[in-house]
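Hey, I'm writing a tutorial for new members on how sequence and structure tokens pair up, and I'd like a real worked example in the thread rather than a made-up one. If someone can provide the structure for the chain below, I'll link this post from the tutorial.
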Amino acid sequence: MKVTKPNLGQMAMQVLAYAQLRNKDIIGTGDISRVLKITRKQEWDLLSRMEKSGIIVRLKKGSYLVPLRMPAGGRWSPSAYLILTSLMKDINGLYQISGPNAFNFYGYDEQIPNRFYVYNNKISGDKIIGGFEFVFIKTKMVGSTNPFNTPDKISVPMASKARALFDAVYDWSRFNTIPRAYCWIKATLKKNPEFSKELVDICLLYGNKATIRRMGYLLSICGVSPKQYEQLRKKTGSSKGLTGWIPLRPARGKIDREWGLIINGEIGDDINS
């Protein structure tokens, strides 16, 4: 005897009615089986069918983002920002958008990234959620942000300009941003010399020795007063080892003992270099 599946539209309406009644935009496995008095397997099948039909979005195993009313046409297309904020709320995570998204946001890079780079304190890895690609970078260094109001009126934490530039130097291997980042910082300081203080503060908060050396040397050749970066010089301490000014280039060039760097290249004035 052939067993027919329950009508998806009818059961989906019950799920959405439950979410609306409880004002819950995120439901978990176990919620629906109790309310609809169905088995966990039936619940899984229902939620899976609703996801494939575009009614709900699977945030992670066992958690689904739900519209509080039936979407027009039966399919729902929440923004990447809604998906991201909902996921972070569900896992109780601290997060911020940075990397290529921030570089484009502040006008340093014209290329519009097709992925969202998210520093956070909970998860790592590349994930596709609701049709959007996310790169989650797990770190303890979450902070120094400005609220960004998205077109769909969601407030998300965007890395501050200083933090974004710091990330471009600190996380250069992930974003392939040195020496471009040096040009971005040089152009910014040319317009606003006082911006150096924000960069120094960010480096003192989050920087490792290599980043502090590179940033300190950069500030020195950009004409910033030594008083501004004196704290960076102290934090580098003394070391016999030398760091390449421009990573991955051959370690050939003059040696700057003050910052412990091999100056293996020059930077220009082009912000898009």
